[in-house]
Design goal:
By secondary structure, this protein is mostly helical. It contains six helices and four strands; from the N terminus they run αββααβαβαα. Helix 1 (2-32) runs antiparallel to helix 2.
Length: 197
């Protein structure tokens, strides 16, 4: 209950403080390309429950049906000019705060993954679903998408097994540097999911 209360308070305050910035980003998205400014994508949450994650749209409308589909890498031509900036600064994830308020996500936890990825989990990896997914997490501050998929899952499992206020504070303290550096945004040659999306 304490964790949920903190999630609601921090997410609510953060949404209020970032509302003007989000409004400017939405205007920029709208001016550059047609389509909804909010992108919704089905993800898997705690105990395997599906939900729609909210993000600011950084690619052309309908990008998941073009080119590499759901796979995205650096230099992807489907990413808009505004989208490059939003991804680089992680501002595209600000609407995740609404997911926190709705109870789909927490501030800290494993990033929510796609149903096709969850379907490939073995029994041990499914323990990753025993906590709510988060906006930031242990794998996020240790490499993000550039990590090999198996390593990313192991880091998330480490978080699940060692979850504590101390670890949460460590993750929070390392998150700003991760965001400011812009590192690990794309999987590159060795990181990320290798299956079919």
């Amino acid at each position: 209950m304490i964790r949920r209360a903190l999630d609601v308070i921090v997410a609510g305050v953060a949404l209020l403080l970032t509302a003007p910035l989000m409004a400017l980003a939405m205007l920029a998205i709208r001016l550059e390309s047609p389509g909804s400014v909010i992108y919704r994508q089905r993800r898997v949450g705690k105990e395997g429950r599906p939900f729609d994650v909210f993000k600011l749209r950084t690619m052309v409308d309908g990008a998941e049906h073009l080119g590499a589909g759901l796979a995205v890498n650096a230099g992807d031509s489907r990413i808009t000019r505004v989208g490059v900036l939003l991804r680089r600064t992680s501002l595209d994830e600000l609407p995740n705060l609404a997911n926190v308020l709705r109870g789909d996500m927490s501030l800290i936890g494993p990033r929510p993954t796609l149903p096709v990825q969850v379907a490939a989990y073995d029994e041990r990896q499914r323990r990753r679903l025993s906590v709510k997914p988060g906006i930031t997490g242990w794998a996020q501050v240790n490499g993000r998408a550039s990590l090999p998929w198996a390593e990313r899952i192991e880091l998330d499992l480490y978080y699940v097994e060692h979850r504590s206020l101390g670890l949460d504070l460590k993750i929070l303290s390392r998150t700003p540097a991760m965001v400011l550096s812009g590192g690990g945004l794309y999987k590159g040659h060795s990181g990320g999911w290798e299956g079919e999306l």
